[in-house]
Amino acid sequence: MDANLHTLFAKHVPDPAAACLIVPNGPVVSYGDLDALSARIAHALVDAGCRAGDRVAVQTEKHWTALALYLACLRAGLVYLPLNTGYQRAELEYFFGDAQPRVVVCGAERLGVVAAAARGATVLTLDHHGGELLDRAEGRPSGFDTVRRDADDLAAILYTSGTTGRSKGAMLTHRNLASNALALVQAWGFTRGDVLLHALPIYHVHGLFVAIHCALLSGSRMLWLPKFDAHEVMALLPKATVMMGVPTFYTRLVAEPSFGRTQTDGVRLFVSGSAPLLAETFHEFETRTGQRILERYGMTETGMITSNPLDGARLAGTVGPPLPGVSVRIVGEDGATVEPGAVGGIQVRGPNVLKGYWNLPEKTREEFTADGWFKTGDMGRWTPEGYVEIVGRAKDLIITGGLNVYPKEIEERIDAMDGVVESAVVGLPHPDFGEAVTAVIVARPGHRLTEAQVIAALKAEIASFKVPKRVVFAVDLPRNSMGKVMKAELRRKLAAPA
Ligand code: AMP
Question: Domain containing 446: what range?
Fold first, then answer.
């Protein structure tokens, strides 16, 4: 049987004339329009030499044609590799060197940087002006025979940063994506009548898979926003029935004095994830709108793992029980399941769990237990209701505005700077971003490095969401008896009022 995710989407297309994407101040794109464009793009990719299993790396703005490109990759059996739009040359060189894409697609304004990093790949442009990819697609047939895929074949590779500072490519199969999408549509009660307000980026699991797949598998519509803007979202919410967001969306909405029921009464479901939603935000949102945000938990490697219920108690500070078909266990250092209520490492098993890390068989083995469970790296506990409560991240990952920053990557860059002895990067609570990247630097005696110089140097090298918001100079770093920097202590000190 063909397990191509695109075949599953095709089964759920309502009337081809039905709207799929509504772009404010832009077109209404029907399911038929999207299908025809994705078929043409699939032909163009095949013409460019792409064969089943080849990678197509994509760093584009969130234009609606980028969705057609994603679907084109699926139906042509290609492996979609989305990249954060903030990634700069050094990062791109690493991804392209590792994944060896056949084709790289980027906006025209990025062409110079991308082409310089792309090695032997064919580089094609795609943005709101059009681009070479669409030029090549034009006039090609509006039908395309979906390439058969096995459930275990790769549909996408999403890079997650590694704690060593090296990103790992999570290999996601058609089974991984399809099983998770079907579970979510069911769990969140998606139907054709839904209108999903989509303001998330589409290079990340949340906006790309969770949001888009729910809409496509229920034949519903998406209000397609290029980015989150609180005023625009407030203006559009009366036309939506569901919104998905990172916690930052919700803190920004409740910060608007005029935000309330006028905008939200027609919305049946607000979903939050990618980072912890503060209980304070949850309660404030309920006070203002009468609605309880549904918080769920997942990660790039596994898709969604747990979700608060659609019907039933949504508990602030918890991420709900495991989704149907997904198993979760919480284990201690010894690998044995902990007592209910005790904190341990969260492990997951199910059809949603990644096939492995691209080119890293050893790393893949390390991240799975001998009996086949994936180690999430998150710490949590069971509540008496059987919900998961996440208490922290084992590896000091920083999540800022819903995006992951691994301290090690930033520390290595700072340490390489002239005049730096060593550094530590931590996340400090931030009302808007959730966490703010903060660097502590031990400089060489007599060196006059400034905060502004460090920030400017990093901005030229890496995506700005990773650049520290604040740089503090210290005489030394707190270390434990094993010589490890005590980040928890550092965070406490930095967060304390001066
Ligand atoms: P990513 O792979 O970028 O989706 O990041 C996954 C990580 O985000 C998880 O391992 C968690 O640490 C964190 N995360 C995702 N959702 C939640 C949530 N609802 N509450 C707390 N942490 C979350």
Answer: 398-495
